[in-house]
Amino acid sequence: MLWTLRSPRLWTLPCRPPQRSFSFTPGRRLSHVLAESTPSPPLFRREVAKARTPPSFSDAVRNVPTRRQIMFVLAGTAGALAVGAHLSNYELFKWWAYIVSTPQAGWKGRLPTSEELARAKYYVFGKRLQAGLASLKGSLEQFPETMRAMITWSYVQVCQPILNASEGKRMCWAIGAVNCAIFLAWRVPRWGAFMLRSFTHNPLSGRSYTLLTSTFSHEGFFHLAFNCMALASFGAAASQQLIILTKKVEQERGTLSETSPKWHLLALFISAGLFSGLVSHVAYARWVYPRLIARLKATTHSASALRSGASATSAGAAAASEAAVTTTKAASEGMHSLGSSGAVYAMFAITALGFPDAEITLIIPPWFPINIQTGFAALLAVDMLGVLRGWKMFDHFAHLGGAAFGVFWYNYGAQIWFTIREWDLPVAYFFHGSALKKTKAGPTDPPS
Fold it and tell me: What span, in angstroms and rounded, lies between the C-alpha atoms of 80 and 76?
């Protein structure tokens, strides 16, 4: 019979898996792999050897870095001046091309003066504000007449002071707006740790970029208000002095017109802020912190001497607590600095040197008018006394550093700015001189 020739295995279902035994003997290779993959238990001596003693406060203070901060300030100052000079040259070619393309301008084939460039920019800005007013009136046709008059009056009251203000004062207002935005960021509770880490400068942190961000950062309202008012006052006056200093350099080295001093002022503000922060950083790292360490060591030695005496229990405990308080105070002194006071001091110095007969009225007593140089010298004396006495309410090192930078820029800043603009002229003409090239009267080569 044919069915007896078939194997019994053919009658099993095709979906049934083959049977395998649950027990098996591992091979040599598998045991070797398992031995390698199994981690060895940690040894106590080995883990103790890996552990490192955390650095003490004195070690951290003794090794405060300064090289990276110095390099950052040099690079940041050079970058701010280079970008500012490039933007100033860009505006030169932009408004030069506008004057050339305007028939009623009466251009005579020469480089426009700074006054002509500023007049053209003021005219276009005024036209733009007038166009905005006309557009606003058109969009308010459906509103009641009283509401339209109120909105139109508000627009005029806001825009007219902006139009009448100088370019330097507008730049000071823009800087103040940035300061206010960062001040509002401080009011967000969730951002507190981020703002403390990224918008305040701590010499012990080792960060360099906070030298820039802390210049625009203000945590207190009165701190923000005082700095913004001083910046609007001295910054506008300093911008006028920059124009005067630039014209003196042009008389010696040739004409190089400038539409407005706002980019020069912005570069000066950033550079002065960086330099004043660097002065504070180096002063704390090389002078303040070593003195704190010396006081800590003296307190520790006195505590040890008291412990070895007769009243070792009470006197030693008192000395130990005093040492702990001193240590905590030393760790917190000068930890975080912020504000644009150093940059404002630079503007103050330039104004005091450029307008020696001007008078100012301080917002603190005395309120009667005093000579600007007398007031500036009095503030410097207070800062010097604060440095010598160790006052911690203000960053006196940053104030003195900003004042020193302002004195330096008053004497040499216009020459430096003129030189950087001369170096950047071919680059600016290559990127932004296309509109001037298209005009018939425009030069074919970069102006010298």
Answer: 6
Distance of CA 220 to the CA centre of its chain: 17
Per DSSP, 360 falls in state E
Kindly report the pTM of this predicted structure. Answer: 0.80
**Residue-wise pLDDT tens digits, 308-351:** 554 544 544 454 455 455 545 544 444 688 999 999 999 999 99
Q: How many CA within 13 A on the CB side of residue 86?
A: 11
Beta pairing partners, 337: 201
Give the position of tokens 């003066």: 113
Residues 107-143 as b or e (16 or more Cβ within 10 Å = b): beeebbebebbbebbeeeeeeebeeeeeeeeeeeeee
Q: Which two tokens stand for residue 274?
A: 């960086």
Q: Could you give the residue ranges of the DSSP H alpha helices within 187-288?
A: 192-198, 210-213, 221-253, 262-283
How many CA atoms are closer than 13 Å to the CA of 372, on its beta-carbon side? Answer: 18
Give the C-alpha separation, 385 to 251, whole Å.
42
Q: Which of 252, 235, 279 is nearest to 414 (CA)?
A: 252
Cα(385)–Cα(400) distance, rounded to whole angstroms?
A: 11
Report how far residue 366's alpha carbon sits from residue 152's, in angstroms, rounded to the nearest whole number: 41
Q: Are 356 and 414 in contact (CB under 8 A)?
A: no
* CA 233-415-405 angle, 5° bins: 50
